[in-house]
Amino acid sequence: MRALDARPGFRLFVLCMLYVGQGIPWGFTALTLPTFLSQHHDATAVGAVSAMTVLPYAFKWVWGPIIDLVVVPRFGRRRPWIILGQGGMALTVGALLLHGDPSSDLPYLAHVVFIHTIFNALQDVAVDGLAVDQLSEADRGRANGLMYASKWGGGALGGAGLSYVIAASGMTTALVLMMLALVAIMLLPLLIRERSPEVVVARPRPLELVKELLRVFSLRSTLVCLVLMALSNVAIGILSPVGNQLYTQVLGWEPADLALLTGGIGLVIGAIGSISAGYVADRLGPRGTATIGAFLLAFAWAGFALAHSAWGSKQLALLIVVLEQLGAGIMTVAFITLSMGLSSPKVGASQFAVYMALSSVGTKYGYQYAGAALEVWTYEGVYYVCAAYQVGLLVLLLFIDPKQTRRELGVDAPAGS
């Protein structure tokens, strides 16, 4: 078996492929499925199903301590949990196959998507913990960019790719292909070791974990980052079902065309933004990089609202999606790099999971209140408000020192990473 700590290039490849394993089902459940549902259901119903794709992420903080504490030294600190999460995702896709057309039974669909996303969140926390364990500060920005780009690439496969398969061969074929892909990716953690044989994996104690978390979250930067992550994706969550309803019910787009734009071209652009953000973050730092991403998002949304008289133009839609996904990719990688830098490797899965869980809480509430936003504002108004909101978040960055945790608590990546 190959050991990840001794082979940096292979380690990055494995991490990226595991993010592809998260991205494929995410692209299907969060992008392709809502797009097809929006043709026959309103924003409230679609938002309710979409909320199931992020709600389990709001409880990632529960998985963090479990993954940090329950260690089987023979099999590695994170590896068994990654396998469990990846396998669970494949099984729940099988549950959708057994039911036939998932769009015909929204309650069943929502419940299966919810359980599926629990396993996706478990795999995500375990992979993030592995990254916190093994990535040095010098590699963190570039690696995060490539890893998140891999998730967007997987999302493009699950989004535009499976949308095309549905149009050509039906939902059953798409679900079979997704399940096979998830099983194939599961072979990677089955066939690797986290560390060389001479490296002993310490079994942490619950009291030590609690003490370390209290130490970490006593710092100003880590606390402000909690607020930032909770608010970071609210606007994105609102605009997802709002945009789907606008395009399919008001502008008359076919779901497959919209899925190709948002789940295909959009995610490819997002992947490019993620890769770029990784390298930029290593030079400008995560705060400067996040500022660039947030302004791109705000510019795209405000520009789209301003050009409402030309909403029927597919060229305008393409331009806005390119700007929006580029900004989202850059901003997301910057926030992930910031959160990872503020996380102590001693409790990496737990602390980082809290940050990621809070970002999912924001997305979930955005989905949930998309319909309410349209009751208060017009479509243009929602886009303007979300643009202003995203820029306002940048004020919080002034109160965050990305290096405070490791400087003041004297912690860094483990030896051999």
What can you tell me about this protein's structure?
The chain has helices spanning 8-37, 43-51, 60-69, 79-99, 106-134, 137-169, 171-190, 206-216, 220-232, 234-250, 255-306, 314-341, 348-368, 370-376, 379-392, 404-408, and strands spanning 2-3, 192-193. It is mainly alpha-helical and 417 residues long. The chain has a single domain, classed as Growth Hormone, Chain: A (Up-down Bundle), CATH 1.20.1250.20. Strands 1-2 form a two-stranded parallel ribbon. The longest helix is centred in the last third of the chain and has 52 residues, at 255-306.
Helix content: over 70%
* Structural class by sheet pairing and helices: mainly alpha
Shape-level CATH architecture:
Up-down Bundle
Largest sheet: 2 strands, parallel
The CATH homologous superfamily corresponds to: MFS general substrate transporter like domains
Neighbour order of strands in the largest sheet: 1-2
Dominant shape: globular
Give the terminus-to-terminus CA distance: 18 Å
Question: Which helices and strands occur, and which strands form pairs?
Answer:
Layout lengths: L1 E2 L4 H30 L5 H9 L8 H10 L9 H21 L6 H29 L2 H33 L1 H20 L1 E2 L12 H11 L3 H13 L1 H17 L4 H52 L7 H28 L6 H21 L1 H7 L2 H14 L11 H5 L9
Keywords, separated by commas or semicolons:
single chain; 417 residues; mainly alpha; Growth Hormone, Chain: A; two-stranded parallel ribbon; 16 helices; 77% helix; globular; disordered C terminus
Short description:
With 417 residues, this protein is an all-alpha fold. It is built from 16 helices and two strands.
